Amino acid sequence: MEIEFRDLKKQYSKYEKDINEAIFGVLKSGEFIGGDPVNELEHNLSSFVEKKHCITCGNGTDALSLVLRAWNIGIGDAVFVPNFTFFATAEVVSLLGATPIFVDVDEDTYNISSTALEKKINEVLFERKLKPKVIITVDLFGLLADYDNITKIATKYSLKILEDAAQAFGATYNGKKACSFGDAATTSFFPAKPLGCYGDGGAIFTDDDQLKSIIESLKVHGKGRDKYDNVRIGVNSRLDTIQAAILNVKFQAFVNHEIDDINAVYEKYISSLNGYVQIPKIPKGFKSTFAQFSIKLKSKRDRDSLKNYLSKFNIPSQVYYKKPLHHQEAFASLKNSDLDYPVSISLSKRILSLPMHPYLNTDEILFISSKIIEFIKKLENIEGE
Ligand SMILES: *Cc1c(COP(=O)(O)O)cnc(C)c1O
Questions:
Q1: Ligand 1: which residue has its CA nearest to atom 14?
Q2: Count of CB atoms within 10 A of residue 169's CB?
Q3: Angle of helix 362-384 versus helix 259-273 axis, rounded to 10
Q4: What is the pLDDT of residue 385?
Q5: Residue with CA closest to ligand 1 atom 5
Q6: What is the 3-state secondary structure (H, E, C) of the chain?
Q7: Res. 1: pLDDT tops 90
Q8: How far apart are CA 163 and CA 100, in angstroms?
């Protein structure tokens, strides 16, 4: 049994013929930037998400910074981000000269805590050094953030919401889809994300016509009437035609069965692991797309030994994330205190992500679970002595 952490080879072998045809179609068309496959993808994704506009771009990081740039976020602005996420969420804020304000996360969902968020907003207002502007919510590991409460807070303090759904494409809350929350939303098509291509790619979603036209200009060198009429300083950030063609095939598989299949994997995991380790809680009304399936152990020592134990049986596992953002050297100058981040610090020590993808079969799930249970029972025996 060769267990993959995220199996892209099984998916390719199932859709090999369609994917190859899509790629060859682009090669034969001679059109490698823009064109029908990109338009088709933007159309399909915006109607799936139920947003007026989908604007594809080079990757999920560019997607975030294009929105922030279009909103004129820069020096003197405060942007609130969860302290437990991939680096890029906060990196883009600093890159634009604004200040990321890290917010602790919720113990059960690992997403931004609305209580901690309101506290941080008030701290920034009290200090009067920065202007609160945007909340970047992250739908971590495939689970949507707590938009009911976050939206109330954003309205109360007149802040914009940017939904970073890089890990949650296809997820829902009461039927409403990821990338449809907030004033704008972004996603990533990095290969290991829920909907991935075979390279880098990203997209932005919004109902705002003006935002859409600014982003379309920014992503092509600040174009005006055309690429050679430049009305602002922009970047070059486009989704390749070949990647769009691949995504058009993979999107069908994603909608037709992959979202259901990965949820079935989740159900099997929890029915075998429940009671042995802390499993991710999916609150009522939410449906995750499980970019990661992350369990929680009692201590760092238990987590590290379980990771080591699993590796002896060739079961891959990963730690997302080893450090909360405020511990990253790149953010050291912000001088944030550990006292503000008890949950993210504890999570970074105790969390472990297990193999998770729609093509994981029952034998593999049972094998992984049995090894975890074996490990926990050994721990209990040692502790019981
Ligand atoms: C992957 C990821 C990004 C960045 O996406 P890229 O396509 O790799 O640039 C941003 N935010 C989160 C939460 C991510 O997981």
A1: 166
A2: 28
A3: 30
A4: 63
A5: 60
A6: CCCCCCCHHHHHHHHHHHHHHHHHHHHHHCCCECCHHHHHHHHHHHHHHCCCEEEEECCHHHHHHHHHHHCCCCCCEEEEEECCCCCHHHHHHHHCCCEEEEECECCCCCCECHHHHHHHHHHHHHHCCCEEEEEEEECHHHCCCCHHHHHHHHHHCCCEEEEECCCCCCCEECCEECCCCCCEEEEECCCCCCCCCCCCCEEEEECCHHHHHHHHHHCECCECCCCCCECCCCCECCCEHHHHHHHHHHHHHHHHHHHHHHHHHHHHHHHHHECCEECCCCCCCEECCCCCEEEECCCHHHHHHHHHHHHHCCCCCECCCCCCHHHCHHHHHHCCCHHHCHHHHHHHHHEEEECCCCCCCHHHHHHHHHHHHHHHHHHHHHHHC
A7: no
A8: 15
Angle between helices 209-218 and 60-70 (to 10 degrees): 120
Specify the pairing of strand 202-206 against strand 99-103: unpaired
Residue from 6, 59, 61, 136 to probe ligand 1 pocket by mutation (most atoms less than 8 Å from CB): 61
Nearby residues of 147 by Cβ (< 8 Å), 6 or more positions away = 137, 173, 181, 182
Q: Band of the pLDDT at 383, cuts 50, 70, 90?
A: confident
pTM, full prediction: 0.98
- Pull the structure tokens for residue 109: 């969902």
Residues 6+ apart with CB under 8 A from 72: none
pLDDT higher than threshold 90 for residue 31: yes
Average pLDDT on 112-139 reads: 98
Q: Is the dihedral of CA 269, 275, 278, 281 positive or negative?
A: positive
How far does residue 178's CA lie from ligand 1's centre (Å)?
15
Q: Do 61 and 89 form a contact (C-beta atoms < 8 A)?
A: no
Q: Which residues pair with 81 in a beta bridge?
A: 102
Ligand 1 lining (C-beta closer than 6 Å): 59-61, 85-86, 88-89, 138, 164, 166-167, 188, 190, 200, 202
Of 107, 112, 110, 73, the residue nearest 93 (C-alpha): 73
Q: How far is the CA of 129 from the centre of ligand 1 (A)?
A: 29
Ligand 1 centroid – CA 237 distance (Å)? 15
Question: Residue 96 has which token pair?
Answer: 């634009």
